[in-house]
Amino acid sequence: MDTSGGSTLSIVVDLVVLALFAGVVVRPVWRRALRRPWPALVAVVIIGVPSLAQFAWPQVGAALMRDPDATLHRGEWWRVVTALLAQDGGLAAAVFGLVVVALVMLIGSAVWGWWLAALLFIGCSVVLNLAALGWQPGGGSSFASDGLLMATAARLALGGRQASRGRRPIAWAAAVQLAGGVVLVAAGDAHGVALVLGFALGAALTATSGRTRAFTRRRRP
Question: Average pLDDT, stretch 36-43?
Answer without folding.
Answer: 95
